[in-house]
Structures are given as structure tokens and as C-alpha cells.
Design goal:
By secondary structure, the chain is an all-beta fold. The protein has one domain: YmcC-like fold (Beta Barrel), CATH 2.40.360.
Length: 213
């Protein structure tokens, strides 16, 4: 069975000050198209080991949902993920979020904050978890990754479990992701999962390449 990270993440990259023109602008909801594709290098940051390349392709764009195919390079099989029009994850074959995993709240601008509460259902066990999130756009930065250098919105999100079934991944997830309007997706993400006061996982992703329609 292929394992896919619950939340995307990226390796450390060089950061520069963004241009004033970009820093003063807002990022609107991305206009996604069938055929848009991104690939990221995944790294297990606990042991600094690069272990797979994650590829995502947009396969359907409708009025109320966006669907993508997610796969691991060199591994047979894939999964279909469903997103809201704001590109917030609703479900995939292993997990469902109700109403959605609200990673974005467009339009984005420096200093913008939002909160949310959602139910997370693990579809293979039927267990549920209640989570609360708190997000803030911290800054606009130039970020350099293997795919190039991009102006990106640096977003901090904390996910806290407020009440869960026994094995519904209770704990706290701290995520920093850099959303680049130019590519309509994240170029960099860093995710740390803490449970019972101990870091259980640290994952990174960095954008390797992309193709937009």
C-alpha cells in the first residue's frame, strides 16, 4: 500500500525579500485547469532522508469540486483527491474532512488570519477526530527550490485535536507552507506532528517541476 503524506511539506530553501509591488498585492483563488501538474521531492526530515517524489495532476474541474490524481513516481497505483473550489482538501481514499481542510482562505494578503473547525474521518477504520485550526499569512518572500525562485505567501497553520476517537491521529500539527500564485500551488511546506509532547514525524516537500495549462 502506497503511503501519502497527510499534509504536504518542503525542505529548507533560500529566502529573499519580495518586491514591494508583489508584497502589496493580494492572491486570489487560483484558476486551475485539467492537466495542471506538479511534482515535489518528499524528505523524511527526522532522518534527513529523501524517499519519494510525489506527483499531482488535475483531472477534473467542476463548479463545486476539483479532483486530482496523486501518485508516487515509480510506484504502481494512485489515489483521487477531491478539493473545494478554494483548493481545500475534502477527501481521498483514506481520509475525509468535514467541511474541508481549510489550508487556504482566498484572497491571501500579509497579516490575514482565519480559524476553522473540522471533523477528520479515517476511512479505513471509521474513527473520527475533531480538529481546530488557526492560520496566519506571515509574510511574502522569495523562495528558491529546485524548480526555481518564486514570490510566495508564507502561511503558518496549527491544527489542534479537540476531541478524538482512540486512533484518529490526535495531537498537534504545525505547518508552514509557501503558496506561489505563479504556479497555483505550494512551492515549499514544512510539517511537524507532535503527540504526547514528542515529535512523531517531520516531513518536507520541495517543488521539483510543474506544468500548467
Amino acid at each position: 500500500m502506497t503511503a501519502f503524506p497527510t499534509l504536504p511539506v518542503l525542505l529548507a530553501a533560500a529566502l529573499l525579500v519580495a518586491s514591494p509591488a508583489f508584497a502589496d498585492s493580494n492572491a486570489n483563488r487560483p484558476e486551475l485547469h485539467v492537466g495542471d501538474r506538479w511534482s515535489w521531492q518528499h524528505t523524511n526530515a527526522l532522518v534527513n532522508e529523501r524517499d519519494f517524489t510525489r506527483i499531482e495532476d488535475i483531472v477534473e474541474v467542476g463548479g463545486s469540486a476539483i479532483r486530482s490524481r496523486i501518485r508516487t513516481k515509480g510506484v504502481t497505483g494512485n489515489l483521487i483527491a477531491t478539493y473545494t473550489p478554494d483548493f481545500n482538501l475534502v477527501d481521498n481514499p483514506t481520509v475525509r474532512f468535514d467541511p474541508s481542510l481549510r489550508r487556504f482562505d482566498f484572497p491571501l494578503s500579509t497579516g490575514k488570519k482565519w480559524t476553522g473547525e473540522f471533523d477528520k474521518a479515517l476511512l479505513n477504520t471509521g474513527k473520527h477526530g475533531k480538529f481546530y485550526l488557526k492560520s496566519e499569512v506571515l509574510a511574502v518572500e522569495k523562495v528558491t527550490v529546485p524548480a526555481g525562485t518564486f514570490d510566495a505567501y508564507k502561511i503558518s497553520t496549527v491544527y489542534d485535536a479537540t476531541g478524538t476517537d482512540q486512533d484518529a491521529n490526535s495531537g498537534q500539527t504545525n505547518e508552514i507552507h509557501w503558496y506561489a500564485p505563479e504556479i497555483r500551488n505550494d512551492v515549499k511546506v514544512e510539517t511537524t506532528f507532535v503527540q504526547d509532547g514528542m515529535v512523531r514525524s517531520k516531513d518536507t516537500l520541495e517543488l521539483l517541476e510543474y506544468s500548467l495549462r
